[in-house]
Design goal:
The chain is α/β, with parallel strands linked by helices. Helix content is about 15%, strand content about 30%.
Amino acid sequence: MAGKRTGGIIPFNSLQVSYDMIETLGIEMAAGQTFSRHFGAETDKIIFNEAAIKAMGITDPIGKIIDFRGKKFQIKGVTKLPFSVIA
C-alpha cells in the first residue's frame, strides 16, 4: 500500500472540504485534479500537498491507495501549497 512506512507514524493535519474550495482559495495543483460535482461524492478520494507526498515517500501518487486514519483513500491530487483535503 502506498505511503506505508515501517516503524513510524507521520503526523498530519487535515481539512475536510467541499467542491470549489481549492479554486476559491486559489490553491495551485501540482498534479491530479480537485474535487468536482461531475464525479459525485468522492468520499474515498484525498488530496495531499507536495510535502505530505514527499514525507510518505510516494512517487507518482495519483491513483494510489493509502490508509489514512484507518480508512482507505485514493489519491486524487497534490497541491503546491500547504493544504491536504478530504472530500
